[in-house]
Amino acid sequence: MGEYDGTSRRRLLQAGVLTAGAAVTSGVLSTGTATAAGEQAQQVQGHMGRIDTQHPRFTLAVVPDTQYQFDQDRGDPAPLTATFDWLIENRAEENIVFMAHLGDVTENALAMEFAQADPVFKILDRARFPYSVLAGNHDIDGSKDDTRGDSPYLRTFPPKRFKGMPTYGGSTPNGYNQYHVFRAAGRQWLLLAMDWRPSDASFAWARDVIAKHPKLPVILTIHELVYADAGDPTAYFSGFGNRVWDQLVDDNDQIFLTMNGHYWPPGRVTRQNAKGHDVHLHITNYQDRYYGGSGMVRLYHFDLARNTIDVETISPWIMGQDPAQRNLLEELELELTDDTNRFSIPIDFAQRFAGFDPTPVRPARPAQQLVIPGTAAYWRFDGPVTDTVKDLSGKGNDLTRKQLAGDAPTASTEYHPDQPGHASWVFPGGKNPARGGYLQTADNAPLNAMTFRSGYTIEAFIKLADDGQDHSWEGLFTRLGTGRDAGKTGSDPDEPAAKLGFSGGLQVQWAVYPLDKNDTFTNWGHEQRAGRWFHLAIVNDGRHSVVYVDSSELLRNPATPSNGLATAGKPWLVAAGHYANEIDQAFAGNIGEIRIVGRALEPAQFLNA
Fold first, then answer.
1. φ, ψ for residue 222 (rounded to 5)?
2. What is the dihedral of CA 520, 521, 527, 532, to 10 degrees?
3. Residue 252 half-sphere exposure, CB side, CA atoms within 13 Å?
4. How far apart are CA 424 and CA 418, in angstroms?
5. CB-neighbour burial class of residue 569 (10 A; exposed 0-12, middle 13-18, buried 19+)
6. Distances (CA, A) of 230 to 114, 235, 266
7. What confidence tens digit (pLDDT) does each residue in 560-583 have?
8. Phi, psi (5° rounding) for residue 587?
9. 3-state secondary structure 396-465
10. Can you tell me the mean pLDDT for 149-164?
């Protein structure tokens, strides 16, 4: 596991940082240390005012085969020119960190064709926009591997052309393969740009590059790897693609995404590598479409907060035209919205990269650090199941375990990643009939009489059961005693005086009888996902209550002022609810800990901060 740096996962996501970064020095990544080259990369990008390397959402632009645009005297550089101009102009808005060309820049590998392409790529050079290029079979003598020697391609795109880029890491001695390291979403990413036919020595070079960057996720770009058939977007390995998989991809767990051109139509497939982890293999090529592909660019929008890559395909050249002047075919090629060219890839990035760059584990925190001024009760469920759970606040609100029909709670090693205690209890509750275990304060516990006139904060780390059963209206933290018992006659006075629970749709519900009102006041949250840990907080400042999930304020909090919590002086229940003082079901799921503070806290003061 990595070393924890004292920052919560919530703050890491807010900052767009999921793992510690690393920097490039002399073509080798030095992990865990900020180097001059890495700092220079950030300064250059920052000076341009173009991209945010910390934001959790960024874009990788991919341009496939442009060969028909540079085909002796039959081409037209306008589409690719428009694409590069668009990338530069939209770099900040789309947070475009890099552009990868997939090969076949030209049709016939002629010097005159590269002379046509060269000034188009210089648009990126002048803007200091980092990019990679690789040779396709139409760019060189396709019958030879990358030991072929000099070529118009290599004279146009030699290693020295890229040495001024802060992302450039190095090339093979023959000059036909290169790698880049770019910074995005608070971390470093490695991109390999491999030749049409890498030699065994070049495959060895690529493996060595990966080995020298052991914590970096790797994106492989190459001209040929997979293909798809017309009418079937499922991709398959070509004969050479099998060799690439065997020599480079299968045993290198850091490679999680590959992109190639050469074939058409586009397609994709997911395969498991030697470690059983997903590798996403994509074929992208539009040369068979109108105007040689119309300068199509595929935009990979990485979103590390949502654990998703959203992919879209557009033609900036057509987008920039006067709509009134577009012909019919241009209208059809403006953007491609079919499932093959516009789609999303769910990836749990932290989990996928855990084998080579595990997310640092936040250390457990002693309870005394969390007993802050005003703490009324603090319970942790981070040990074996016992008959009594001590109130760690020292205020005497210990819990006693009770049992309905069915199974008792069990101890679990699962916990929320920002939870101070590293364990939980699993409550196997249910209803019809009422079953499971719960806990209850003593009849004389100080918490029972507290009305919290000045405000309160209730926090819990929980995971709702994902067992397919009906747990609608289950209670997590409930005050025994009804509204009627507390002297209230409005709403349904047989409801609890206060209840924190979940509706039939797993919506958070905080329903209370305030001291100064005769009816219940209810805060609602959105539907929660069963099987997912989250931090829940109810914050009241003496006038209004607000619900937070993972420190994010929710909608549907009453605007009408109310004060305090009515009480009949009866115990509080943990992991249960009731109606008319009859417990109708116990909670189903994990509970890590619960803290009650007699004042309103800011999210920065929550247990998950």
1. -160, 160
2. -90
3. 30
4. 13
5. middle
6. 31, 11, 9
7. 999 999 999 999 999 999 999 999
8. -65, 150
9. CCCEEEEECECCCCEEECCCCCCCCCCCEEEEECECCCCECEEEEECCCCHHHHCCCCCCEEEEEEEEEC
10. 98
